[in-house]
Amino acid sequence: MYLTKVEERMLGGEFGEAMSVAMKILVKVGEALGASRLIEVSHVHISGVSYSNIGEPGLEYLEKLASTKPKFSAYTTVNPSCVDLSLSSKIVSLEDWEKQAIINGILESMGSRTSYTCTPYLLRRPFMLEHLAWGESSAVAMANSFYGAFTNREGGPLTIAAAIAGRTYMAGLHLMSERRAKYVVKTPPLNNEAEASLLGLYIGERYSEITQITGASEWSHSIVKEFLAASAASGSHALVPLDGVTPRGTYVVEEGVERTTIDRRELEYYYDNVSKALELGEETLVYIGCPHLSLSELRQLSIMFDGRRLKRGVHFLVTVPGTYRAFRDIDRSLKKAGVEVAIGTCPIVSKITVKPDVVLTNSGKALFYLSKLHKFNVSLASLVDIVKLVSEK
Ligand code: F3S
Asked: Which among 273, 376, 343, 294 is positioned nearest to 82, based on CA atoms?
């Protein structure tokens, strides 16, 4: 791999041990993937920071790394942790708080923002054609498909190396030659975010290569967010070009590609396969905020709850970025209705204290992980329908 003079010095140890190790990781991975050089990145997003996920081995790795006193040289954000940062959640367990605090402290000492979110694009909007090194599947899909930035879907250790070096390897989705749609799919009009989630799960499951979607030009940011998170969960899609949304010039559609149409009946049939019917259980958990809610989405939710209260046996969990600690007014009004807003966390990377017989969500990604990994009975429905079912005046 070609390295600049500075990069050779970085690799050789002139900028410290941590930098040298980071460069070795990037060069090794890059060479394995056929990269001819490294490229500077303007934003790194580190995934895999929850103690529930990485456990003692992950913590030990970070402690060892911290002993070499590394500093991040790129703007760096991090994924959700396993505890509510306000330490007030009754649904997300606080059991691992001390371990998580050590992880957060290490990352912040290296220079990460106190983001703790899977929506780093809400904190710093990516530019078109900008190179990033992001490691959260839903965020990666948004960066490539909504903002027209270039990033691969990276693992946790590689994102840490990229943050230290301020670089990543020039391969995969950093190259235009790898951003070629092999299928074009026409989709039906969508009525809400739950339908977008369902469509995302379906596309992810059914297509294994880059697939351009037509019929998406009217989709809102929230709809795109749910669609892409779901397709990245069920099918590892890092780029789903959306005709009329994804900036032109950031992907190409190959000539003579297979073109298909998905109709509503197909989606209805798929819904019956992946989702339980929308109904209350003896104990019901509602989970909203996968990916994390934006401030305006949180405000809309609080408006929906105006004058309403949760029914008996319902726990309602909302997750937002770690930067939302200041928005106490919205939090207070939702709390009055019985809704819990947990900050900088999510139940998929945490332990939860409740044992629901039914989980309701508007997120396809949450449905995918809560039903497949955590074995809950999960129903997918729109936020409007869920709020109507679980609350009363
Ligand atoms: Fe974010 Fe957790 Fe969903 S990390 S995308 S809220 S699974």
From this structure: 343
